[in-house]
Amino acid sequence: MKAQEIFPDPKRIRRKLLGWYEGHRRRLPWRETRDPYAIWISEIMLQQTQVKTVVPYYMRFLERFPTVQTLAHAPLGEILKTWENLGYYARVGNLHKAAGEIAGQHGGRIPDSREELMRLPGIGRYTAGAILSIAFGRAVPAVDGNVRRVISRLFRIRESVDDGETRERIEALVQTLVPKRDPGRFNQALMELGAVRCTSKSPSCPDCPLRGDCRAQDLAHRLPVRGKKKTVPHREVVAAVIRDRKGRILIVQRPARGLLGSLWKFPGGILNPREVREEGLKRIVRDELGIGIGVGSALASVKHAYTHFRITLTAFSCTLLEGSPAGQQWRWADAGESEALPFSSADRRIARTVAPIKQA
Predict the structure, then answer these.
(1) ∠211-215-216 over CA atoms, to 5°?
(2) Which domains occur in the chain, in start order?
(3) How far is CA 280 from CA 241, 269, 273, 287, 295, in A?
(4) Counting CB atoms within 10 angstroms of each CB, which of 17, 87, 265, 308 has the fewest?
(5) CA-based nearest residue to 173, from 146, 205, 141
(6) CA distance linking residue 239 with residue 281, whole number of Å
(7) In angstroms, how far apart are the furthest CA atoms of the chain?
(8) Is residue 78 flagged as an active site residue?
(9) 225 alpha-carbon distance from chain centroid
(10) Band (228; pLDDT cuts 50, 70, 90)
(11) What is the pTM (predicted TM-score) of this model?
């Protein structure tokens, strides 16, 4: 069935949605600017992160790194520290690399074409569409999860939104609705509708400005159709808290590539299946730093969830028995130094629980 047969008057959809948006939209700082740089930063921060969490980070980030040039020339560790606890740290590396490319190859100006934007690290089709429509006024769709959900209900799409063809169909439908005049405002209105009215678990159909046009009010709770949910695996992680004679704690920096790249942590890592925690910790630390340790009692344990798996991180009091740390970036850190360095949320909780002993 063609989009025109479902919606004979896209203008009515725009009028209703934009009228609702003017009266009900949340006042968010990135909606008060057309600066491409600020829009880019907000869109990266909002990926898989709640709005209320992003707002203070966004304000602090722009205060510390107000331009592409300041971001490009800042040390990665400083950017990671500003980002600490916001999660999905791969975004930081991509931001830093992209800022360098923009400063070096585009004269410090955010590109205004989809092709050039999507060549930059961390910018996909949605982010490019958001930047182009909001900052540059281009009539292109910006389809995130909220928009996908709204459109699947609006057009009564029963195919899985995890399927590539369905996603292409949804983007094509949004393209028919995006107006040439102020397309960014329309895209933001569509996202806002999905965020506050057409929600995933409790859609507020009676309060929806498009309720008279929606084709799925009788099955809104069953749409969008998703693929089979995968089981989220659990991993046991161990960490060694090793002190020197001054009470400082041994910490190591993660490799730049991979999960939590360039963040600092305690020596340790993921156990093998059914591996005894103490023995596994000895093995991991020897492989990591070339030292032998004695493992004492457990000091603290925290649980944390990532996108595709969950962990339980247990820290043990350990002693250095043989060798000197070698092989990767490491240091003995006192309380002040460890607070100044970027850690993951789980490692930071451990660090504050087992804060280094201050010597008199």
Answers:
(1) 90
(2) 3-222 (1.10.340.30), 234-353 (3.90.79.10)
(3) 15, 9, 10, 11, 10
(4) 308
(5) 141
(6) 7
(7) 79
(8) no
(9) 24
(10) confident
(11) 0.86
